[in-house]
Amino acid sequence: MPDYLTLLSADEPSPFGLENELGQSPFVIVCEHAGARLPKSLGTLGLDDEHLTRHFMWDIGALDLARIIAQRLDAPLATQRYSRMICDCNRHWEAESFIPTHGEGIPVPANADLTPAERARRRAEIWQPFQDGVANMLDAREARGQRTLFVTIHSFTPTFFGKPREVEYGVLFDRDTTLSPALLKALRAQHGEKALANEPYDMNRDSDYTVPVHGEDRGLDSVEIEVRNDLLSTREQIETRANELVFALREAAENLGVTTNPPKKGTTL
């Protein structure tokens, strides 16, 4: 394919990142909205600089939170480096929201009126490498005979179109009947009504991809965790939330009869 028809140049990184690939934990941590990186070929997508730090570009605080959790559990961490405004790697490529034309009501000029070839390019260079990376990682764990508890980490805004959100932790799932309720029980013991099932979003196969396809379709115990991003504003806050989630995840695993490694301490960002 000629250079002018490629999205990423040779010196730009792959969308898929993998840390601690051979971690011994039964947990696998995934962060699909980890980065706000933009391919050089697309500039700023026509957005003003002030918009590039908004939550609609990526899940603020989610990567640091996911990284600490993975380190303390000795779990692999799979990440996606590019902004979800390029394409959303937690959506099916045929979904209407796969390439958003607006972010929290703000138009994204470079995403308007894309040709089929442009959409296909984003799928081929961003979405597909990430999906292949996650699938290959899970295949390798299965080949090694490792049990997998599949967890994705996201964050959400404290208000959405002017409506406050009181929930602090969301436990999202579609068909999972094992890890999700066990984790919800553990978080409810800590936070009561601040931890809710399928809030602030309802998971289904039309709105989500990672957990339904990579997790539930494989028969893995699976859950998506959402954390309100004003609770992830400082290193101290992120450490606190990581501690709470590590404790809850280990308790959930033990309730399923799965042995986990003791949490690692002294982790820094």
UniProtKB/TrEMBL annotation:
Record-linked Pfam families: FGase (PF05013)
Alphabetical list of SUPFAM superfamilies matching this protein: Zn-dependent exopeptidases
Classification via InterPro entries: N-FG_amidohydro, UCP029730
Key words, A-Z: Plasmid
Highest taxon, organism lineage: Bacteria
Protein name: N-formylglutamate amidohydrolase
Organism of provenance: Sulfitobacter dubius
